[in-house]
C-alpha cells in the first residue's frame, strides 16, 4: 500500500532488538506464526490454571485478539474468510499472567490499552502492541493467511473463542501503538485533539438530568 | 402468494451481499472523506479500508472479520401473502442466517448472554432480531439485512425540552468523542440520531436512522434536514478522524428520525454505523422474483405519517 508512513516487514518470532527498532505510528506487516486468544482462553489458561493449550513454539509468539470468520470443514481442513481484531482493553487484567506462561512479545488487537498498562505489564516483558487498521480490514488480513496449522480448545470454547494458530505472510497492515518504552500512539493523538474540544462545547450546558458517575472532563477516556 | 423457497434463497443471497459488498452510497461518502482528509494516519486508515473493500469483492470474502450482529428488517406490502405465513418466513430468515454463517463464512458471534452458549450459526434466543413494517397498496415483501458492528458507538439519554437543541448537540458530541477516541466506533460512520418516542422507540429510531437510510438522504422536515447537516459538520470539526487519529473524517453522514414523545421529555439516542456499513435489501414479488438494491427505503411518507388516516403525504415542519 502506498503511504508516506514508515513501513516495516517483521519476521516472527521477533527478537527484542527487532522490536526496539519500531516507533509508534510505524506501519508493520508480519510473516511467520501467530495465534488468536481472547477472554475465553485467558480465563481458562490463566485464571482456571489450565496453562497453555499447546507448546509455545507450536503456537507462535504473537497473540492476536480476534476470532476469525472461519469454519472447520467436515474433512478437518479450515476455511478462513475474514479476520478482524476485537477491542483489547477488556483483556488487560489477564495479560501479566499470559505473558508469563506464553512467552509472547507482541499483542495484536483493536484500540490498544492505556499507557499505564504498557508501562506496568508490557515493558517488563519486552512486549509491544500492534493495532489493526480501520478496524474493518478483515478481507486484507484474510488474504495474508497461508495456513491454519492447528485449532485448540474448539470443543471447550466454541469456534469464536478457540485458539486458531495462523501461518501468515505479509499479513497486515498494522500500526505500532506501543513501543518498548510503553508510549501509546492513541494517547499521543488524544493529546493533540484535546485542546480543540472546549470550543466545540461553547454555549452548551450539561444536561438537566445527570447520570451517576458521569464526568464532564472530555479529555478522559471510556476505556 | 410469495413462495417461501424464494424468500429463503433471497435471504441467503442478501446475507452474503451484505457481508461482502460495501454499499455504493457509503463508499462514495468515504471516498469524499479520503479526498479531504489531511491527517497522515487517518488518511492511511481510509486508504486501507478502500483497498479492503476491493479485496473483499475480488475474493468474495467478508469485508470485516467481525460479523457484528446480523439482523433482519421486513416490510410487508399490505396485500402480500407469504406461503406458510409469517411463521414460515421467520423460519426461513433464521435458516438463511445459519447457512450464511457456515457458507460465506461469517463469524458465529451470537452467544447466550449468561452461559455464553454458541450455536456457531448466529441463531439463538431472540436472535437474529426481526423487525417489521408495512406498506400500503403493495403485494411484495422487502427483506433487508443489516450486519451491525460495534459494541461501542451507541448511547441513550433522557433529555428534557429545556435542554433544547444545544443539549442535543452536547450529547451528540459526548458520544462521538467518547467512542471516537482510539476509533472504538470504527469511524468514519453514518451517525443515526433518534429523537423522541418512548425510550425504546428512541433507540430503535436512531439505529434505523443510521442503518436503513443511505448517505446523502435527508429528513423531509427542512429544519431537521438542516440539523442533520449541522451535526455532520460539527462531527467532522472535532479534529478526530479514522481510529481517533488527528483528522476530519468522523461522520460520513448524519440522519435524524423523530417520534412523538412524552410532553415532559426529549429522549435521544445516538448510533454509529461503522466502516463496515453492511446492509442489503431485496424486494420479493408474488411470482417469487427478487430484485436487489442497497437502499432499504425503510422510512417513507407512510412510515413517518402523523395523522390518524393515511391519505396524501403530510410534511410537518416545526411551527
Ligand atoms: S465496528 Fe464495524 S468495522 Fe469495526 S470491527 Fe465491528 S463490524 Fe468491523
Question: Which descriptors would you attach to this protein?
Answer:
heterodimer; A: 223 residues; alpha/beta; fumarase; two-stranded antiparallel ribbon; 9 strands; 26% strand; B: 319 residues; alpha+beta; 2 domains; 5-stranded mixed beta sheet; 4-stranded mixed beta sheet; 7 helices; 36% helix; globular; binds iron/sulfur cluster
Mean pLDDT of chain B: 96
Structural class of chain A: alpha/beta
Sheet having the most strands of chain B: 5 strands, mixed
CATH topology annotation of chain A: fumarase
Task: Give the domain tally of chain A.
Answer: 1
* Range of strand content of chain B: 15-25%
Give the total of beta strands of chain B: 9
Question: Could you list the spans of chain B in which at least 5 consecutive residues all have pLDDT below 50?
Answer: none
Tally of helical runs of chain B = 7
State Rg of chain A. 19 Å
Tertiary shape of chain B: globular
Overall number of domains of chain B:
2
Instruction: Return the string of H and E elements of chain A.
Output: EHEHHEEEHEHEHEHEHH
CATH superfamily of chain A: Fe-S hydro-lyase, tartrate dehydratase beta-type, catalytic domain
Strand arrangement within the widest β-sheet of chain A reads 2-3-6-7-9
Amino acid at each position: 500500500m502506498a503511504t508516506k508512513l514508515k513501513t516495516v516487514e517483521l519476521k516472527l518470532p521477533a527478537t527484542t532488538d527487532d522490536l526496539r527498532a519500531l516507533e509508534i505510528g510505524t506501519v508493520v506487516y508480519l510473516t511467520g506464526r501467530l495465534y488468536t486468544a481472547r477472554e475465553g482462553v485467558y480465563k481458562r489458561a490463566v485464571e482456571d490454571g489450565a496453562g497453555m493449550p499447546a507448546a509455545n513454539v507450536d503456537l507462535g509468539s504473537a497473540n492476536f485478539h480476534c476470532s476469525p470468520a472461519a469454519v472447520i470443514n467436515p474433512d478437518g481442513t479450515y476455511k478462513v474468510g475474514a479476520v478482524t481484531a476485537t477491542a483489547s482493553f477488556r483483556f488487560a487484567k489477564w495479560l501479566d499472567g499470559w505473558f508469563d506462561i506464553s512467552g509472547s512479545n507482541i499483542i495484536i488487537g483493536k484500540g490498544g490499552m492505556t499507557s499505564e498498562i504498557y508501562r506496568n505489564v508490557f515493558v517488563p516483558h519486552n512486549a509491544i502492541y500492534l493495532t489493526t487498521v480501520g478496524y474493518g480490514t478483515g478481507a486484507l488480513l484474510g488474504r495474508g493467511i497461508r495456513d491454519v496449522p492447528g485449532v485448540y480448545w474448539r470443543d471447550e470454547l466454541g469456534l469464536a473463542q478457540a485458539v486458531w494458530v495462523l501461518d501468515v505472510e505479509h499479513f497486515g497492515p498494522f500500526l505500532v501503538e506501543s513501543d518498548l518504552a510503553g508510549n501509546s500512539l492513541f494517547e499521543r493523538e488524544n493529546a493533540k485533539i484535546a485542546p480543540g474540544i472546549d470550543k466545540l462545547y461553547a454555549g452548551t450546558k450539561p444536561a438537566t438530568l445527570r447520570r451517576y458517575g458521569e464526568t464532564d472532563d472530555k479529555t478522559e477516556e471510556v476505556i | 402468494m410469495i413462495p417461501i423457497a424464494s424468500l429463503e434463497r433471497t435471504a441467503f443471497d442478501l446475507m452474503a451481499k451484505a457481508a461482502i459488498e460495501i454499499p455504493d452510497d457509503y463508499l462514495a461518502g468515504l471516498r469524499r472523506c479520503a479526498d479531504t482528509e489531511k491527517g497522515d494516519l487517518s488518511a492511511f486508515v481510509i486508504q486501507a479500508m478502500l483497498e479492503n473493500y476491493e479485496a473483499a469483492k475480488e475474493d468474495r470474502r467478508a469485508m470485516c472479520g467481525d460479523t457484528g450482529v446480523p439482523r433482519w428488517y421486513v416490510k410487508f406490502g399490505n396485500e402480500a401473502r407469504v406461503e406458510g405465513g409469517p411463521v414460515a418466513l421467520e423460519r426461513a430468515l433464521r435458516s438463511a442466517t445459519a447457512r450464511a454463517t457456515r457458507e460465506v463464512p461469517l463469524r458465529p458471534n451470537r452467544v447466550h448472554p449468561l452461559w455464553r452458549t454458541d450455536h456457531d450459526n448466529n441463531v439463538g434466543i431472540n436472535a437474529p432480531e426481526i423487525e417489521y413494517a408495512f406498506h400500503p397498496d403493495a403485494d411484495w415483501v422487502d427483506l433487508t439485512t443489516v450486519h451491525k458492528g460495534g459494541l461501542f458507538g451507541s448511547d441513550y439519554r433522557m433529555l428534557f425540552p429545556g435542554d433544547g437543541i444545544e443539549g442535543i448537540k452536547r450529547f451528540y458530541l459526548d458520544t462521538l468523542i467518547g467512542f471516537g477516541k482510539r476509533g472504538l466506533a470504527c469511524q468514519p460512520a453514518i451517525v443515526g440520531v433518534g429523537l423522541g418516542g418512548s425510550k425504546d422507540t428512541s433507540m430503535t429510531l436512531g439505529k434505523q436512522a443510521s442503518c436503513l437510510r443511505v448517505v446523502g438522504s435527508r429528513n423531509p422536515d427542512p429544519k431537521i434536514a438542516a440539523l442533520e447537516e449541522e451535526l455532520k459538520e460539527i462531527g467532522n470539526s472535532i479534529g478526530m478522524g479514522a481510529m481517533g487519529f488527528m483528522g476530519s473524517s468522523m461522520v460520513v453522514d448524519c440522519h435524524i428520525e423523530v417520534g412523538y414523545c412524552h410532553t415532559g421529555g426529549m429522549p435521544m439516542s445516538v448510533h454509529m454505523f461503522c466502516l463496515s456499513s453492511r446492509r442489503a435489501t431485496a424486494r420479493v414479488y408474488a411470482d417469487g422474483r427478487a430484485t436487489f438494491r442497497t437502499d432499504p427505503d425503510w422510512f417513507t411518507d407512510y412510515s413517518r405519517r402523523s395523522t390518524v388516516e393515511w391519505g396524501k403525504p403530510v410534511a410537518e415542519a416545526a411551527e
